[in-house]
Amino acid sequence: MELYVPDDVPRVAKRERIVLGGVHIVVPENAVGLGAIVFVKEGALEMLEGFTYEGIWPDPMSTWQLHELSAERDLHALTTKLPP
User: Fold this and answer.
1) Which residues of the chain fall short of a pLDDT of 70?
2) Residue 36: which residues within 8 A CB-CB, separation 6 or more?
3) pLDDT tens digit string along 52-71?
4) Contact between 5 and 43 (Cβ < 8 Å)
5) Extended strands (E) in 1-84
6) Which residue, 35, 39, 83, is CA-closest to 55?
């Protein structure tokens, strides 16, 4: 799913590209849940790539929530301490 972020929304980092795995999607239509990879380009969300752990992708999805699988990741450190 490609995302559009308006130009007037503040960016989180000046880095050209960040790819984050370990994202879990909770949906009522799939008891196991779904996984995702989040793509950030020039500090703004660019794309969300989703996949199933089991079964088919629910269509339509009534509601969904994103959760990080690892509580150990420090996103602030990721965007500020790594080299450009």
Assistant:
1) 13-14, 70-84
2) 23, 24, 25, 48, 49, 50, 51, 66
3) 988 888 888 888 888 877 65
4) no
5) 17-27, 30-41, 44-52, 65-68
6) 35
